[in-house]
Design brief:
Layout (H helix, E strand, L loop, with lengths): L2 E7 L3 H12 L4 E4 L11 E2 L7 E2 L10 H6 L9 E4 L3 E4 L5 E4 L3 H9 L3 H22 L14 H10 L5 H12 L2 H6 L5 H8 L15 H7 L4 E2 L2 E2 L2 E4 L4 H13 L3 E3 L4 E7 L2 E7 L4 E9 L3 H10 L5 H8 L7 E8 L15 H4 L2 E3 L3 H12 L8 E5 L14 E8 L10 H20 L3 H4 E7 L1 H8 L35 E3 L13 H29 L1
Parallel strand pairs: 1-2, 1-14, 2-11, 14-20
Antiparallel strand pairs: 3-4, 5-10, 6-7, 8-9, 12-13, 13-14, 15-18, 15-19, 16-17, 17-18
Helix pairs in contact: 1-10, 1-18, 3-4, 6-9, 8-14
């Protein structure tokens, strides 16, 4: 039986990135994806004939230029268009607020509501640029574990923090513990301004803007960039599947093999070491090392199995929280919607950026209140991207697509179920909320697809529907992600690794977990080869 250097379980974007880096280093790599399409949640699908829909993830920002350049992704078709403005927020009273990538232009917009807030926004942006840059340095750090033998690695981390002042450390701690509302209240007075900025405190999180720790979620989304535009978002031509296609192209060009329709049943373990995988059809494949891009809980409990794990690791992974209230709603529309406040051309500012329904922090918190008690939000948070503005070919002629990321819908409904009318009801809520801000939108709906948390889990393997592969809270970040003792991409099984968003630095289409995991695998492979040479030399002498 052929034994590969590395088998990667899961062809999500992190698994593909890991494969590309490993193959470029000369390793024999095989990627096994259970679905018939690559990409995990970064995928383009056709729910209706003639449409190309980014079913789950829908925009990019966190993919670093470093990864794009190292893997030469543009050579393999990676192309983005800047979403501008950053956010367009319509209100029921016929007014609107627009936040631009241009700082002064945004401040001028905010000044229409509050001159004080406009001045504060300029300082707010400077603050986030500094904190974001400091945290950005930590993205590529391999998190050391909390043991004495890791002291040298902690010294490396300390070196990364040498630019941090005591105040910087204090601010980082505050961001990890403060609620988004308390944080924004320190800066701004107008409820519409705070509502606009509070959207990023809840995206992908199982919390509201008044929940402790939600301020960090805001900074996590602030560290991205598109073509040099800090904090910006971008549309990927070809949909999010094009991200995965470019990563797969880079991996294949380097010599990696990628198979779809190849679900893995379990990791083959011998004497505490991963030696390959067994597919669901019974075929076994050998490997010197196995890397999993699957959800950490799935990897530990299903692919490895409790019998092979230390009791402490089993307990910790069972405590790993992976809840979510994210619901993706994809719409096909006969016409572009016109917000009440917009009198310009179509498409215009509401369509070339992200349109967001978030009038206040209280609005977001009430949406969260519904979900935490088991109800779908009556008035959910909704943000919308219109990809047909940038790429008309993703839909039939004269039809537009609206990709709606929304919150909140709990995994289990207290009354009823998602499959028995719940998804349809939630879809109607989203359409109604949009129609209240953009009259006529409801009559324009041609198709609707609703993906509540259980469907996100089933289709993409994101347990609980959590788009981050696990909640991003202080006790599940850095050296605690996914569990203490195994934050450095290793697992309790020798030669078995993790590379998905359930590891540092977390969720988002960034490929950094895959890159970091590849560095660990390559380092271990190098040490193993050195050890084998020493042992061979010792035997000869």
């Amino acid at each position: 039986m052929q034994s590969r250097d590395v088998i990667i379980v899961g062809g999500g974007h992190n698994g593909l990135a890991c494969a590309a880096y490993l193959a470029r280093a000369g390793l024999d790599v095989l990627v096994l994806e259970r679905r018939d399409v690559l990409g995990g949640a970064a995928v383009t699908e056709s729910p209706w004939p003639g449409y190309q829909i980014s079913s789950a993830s829908y925009v990019v920002s966190l993919m670093p230029p470093r990864v794009i350049d190292e893997l030469q992704l543009k050579r393999f078709g990676y192309k983005t268009s800047l979403l501008d403005p950053d956010y367009y927020l319509p209100y029921r009273d016929g007014t609107s607020l627009t936040l631009w990538g241009d700082l002064n232009r945004s401040a001028e917009e905010i000044a229409r509501f509050s001159k004080r807030d406009a001045d504060a926004y300029i300082e707010f942006d400077k603050y986030f640029q500094r904190v974001g840059n400091l945290l950005h340095d930590m993205m590529y750090v391999i998190p050391p574990n909390l043991t004495l033998r890791e002291v040298p690695n902690w010294l490396v981390v300390a070196g990364k923090l040498r630019k941090w002042t005591g105040r910087d450390v204090a601010e980082a701690v505050r961001l990890f513990t403060l609620s988004g509302m308390d944080f924004l209240d320190e800066w701004f007075e107008d409820e519409r301004v705070k509502g606009a900025l509070a959207t990023q405190t809840i995206v992908g999180a199982w919390c509201g803007p008044m929940s402790p720790g939600s301020a960090y979620v805001l900074i996590h989304h602030w560290v991205g960039e598109i073509d040099g535009h800090a904090g910006a978002w971008g549309w990927v031509h070809g949909g999010m599947g094009a991200v995965s296609k470019s990563l797969a192209g880079a991996a294949r060009a380097a010599g990696a093999e990628i198979r779809t329709d190849a679900p893995v049943h379990r990791v083959t373990i011998r004497d505490g070491r991963a030696v390959g995988v067994e597919l669901t059809d019974g075929i076994t494949l050998g490997a010197r090392r196995v890397v999993s891009g699957a959800h950490p809980t799935t990897t530990y409990l299903d692919l490895i199995g409790e019998a092979a794990l230390p009791e402490e690791a089993t307990r910790d992974i069972k405590r790993f929280r992976t809840r979510s209230g994210s619901v993706k709603v994809n719409l096909a529309l006969r016409d572009l919607p016109r917000p009440m406040a917009w009198e310009g051309d179509l498409p215009g500012d509401p369509h070339t950026g992200i349109m967001s329904i978030s009038p206040s922090i209280e609005y977001l918190e009430r949406a969260w209140d519904d979900a935490k008690y088991g109800r779908m939000s009556t008035d959910p948070y909704v943000e919308v991207v219109f990809p047909t503005v940038f790429e008309p070919g993703v839909a039939p002629e004269n039809i537009h697509v609206a990709l709606c990321f929304t919150q909140f819908g709990p995994f289990e409904l207290k009354d009823g179920s998602w499959t028995d009318g719940g998804a349809d009801e939630y879809g109607r809520n989203v359409v109604r909320v949009l129609d209240e801000h953009c009259p006529g939108l409801a009559d324009s709906v041609e198709h609707i697809e609703v993906l509540p948390p259980p469907e996100i889990e089933r289709r993409f393997g994101l347990l609980g529907g959590n788009i981050m592969q696990g909640e991003m809270t202080p006790d599940q970040m850095f050296c605690f992600r996914p569990i203490p003792g195994y934050a450095d991409y290793h697992t309790p099984i020798k030669d078995m690794y993790l590379c998905g968003a359930g590891t540092h630095p977390g969720g988002g289409v960034m490929a950094v977990p895959g890159r970091n995991a590849a560095q660990v695998v390559l380092r271990d492979a190098k040490l193993s080869r050195a050890f084998e040479r020493v042992r061979s030399f010792t035997k000869r002498t």
